[in-house]
């Protein structure tokens, strides 16, 4: 049972390291408050794992000590019942401590899985947001090129309108001059 708890603890520590690396990569460009919040959570998680590791080690040592006391009690002459009871008490206490540590490790593993799920959700959200931002950038580039094309078309249209106005003024002037000459000729004036 202690080996299983140790394996669970190692898996949880490895998981924490992976999530920490992934979060650091994903949050490298994010705001400071989100990054600080996740750094805080990861450091708390690391402290919990270290605490559980210490409790597991102390439970293992206590179990080893109580096992040694049991062996010595059986080898002694007389007082077998007192030594046996003391050994059983120590074994019972060690078992209870080991069970408490196992429950705490299971709770830590559950919290680690929940944290992993949350971090996966955050990473998926960040990935979706990254895709949205890249699509917005692409659309903005398209809009920018279309706007510049529209500006060029408008400036060409304005130039043509000015040219047409100038041509119209010239035609009006020539027509006016022609009508003046005709009127003078018709009236017989020099």
Write the layout of secondary structure elements.
Layout: H1 2-26, H2 32-75, H3 80-187
Helix pairs in contact: 1-2, 1-3, 2-3
In short:
This protein is mainly α.
Characterization of this structure:
The chain has 190 residues and is mainly α. It contains three helices and no strands. It has helices at 2-26, 32-75, 80-187. 9% of the residues are buried. Mean pLDDT is 80; it is low at 70-79.
| Gyration radius over CA | 44 Å
Shape: rod-shaped
Helix share, percent: over 70%
Structural class assignment:
mainly alpha
Order of helices and strands: HHH
Give the count of helical stretches.
3
Termini separation: 129 Å
Relative strand content: under 5%
Mean pLDDT: 80
Largest sheet: none
What is the number of E strands? 0
The low-confidence runs, each spanning 5 or more residues with pLDDT under 50, are 70-79
Give a quick set of tags describing it.
190 residues; 3 helices; rod-shaped
């Amino acid at each position: 049972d202690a080996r299983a708890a140790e394996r669970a603890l190692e898996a949880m520590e490895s998981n924490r390291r992976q999530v920490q690396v992934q979060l650091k990569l994903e949050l490298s460009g994010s705001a400071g408050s989100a990054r600080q919040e996740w750094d805080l959570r990861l450091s708390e998680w690391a402290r919990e794992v270290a605490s559980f590791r210490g409790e597991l080690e102390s439970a293992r040592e206590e179990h080893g000590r109580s096992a040694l006391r049991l062996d010595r009690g059986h080898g002694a002459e007389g007082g077998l019942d007192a030594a046996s009871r003391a050994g059983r008490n120590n074994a019972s206490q060690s078992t209870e401590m080991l069970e408490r540590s196992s429950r705490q490790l299971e709770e830590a593993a559950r919290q680690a899985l929940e944290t992993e799920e949350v971090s996966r959700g955050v990473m998926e959200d960040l990935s979706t947001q990254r895709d949205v931002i890249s699509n917005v950038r692409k659309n903005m580039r398209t809009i920018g090129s279309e706007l510049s094309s529209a500006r060029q078309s408008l400036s060409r249209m304005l130039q043509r309108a000015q040219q047409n106005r100038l041509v119209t003024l010239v035609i009006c002037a020539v027509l006016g001059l022609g009508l003046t000459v005709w009127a003078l000729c018709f009236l017989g004036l020099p």
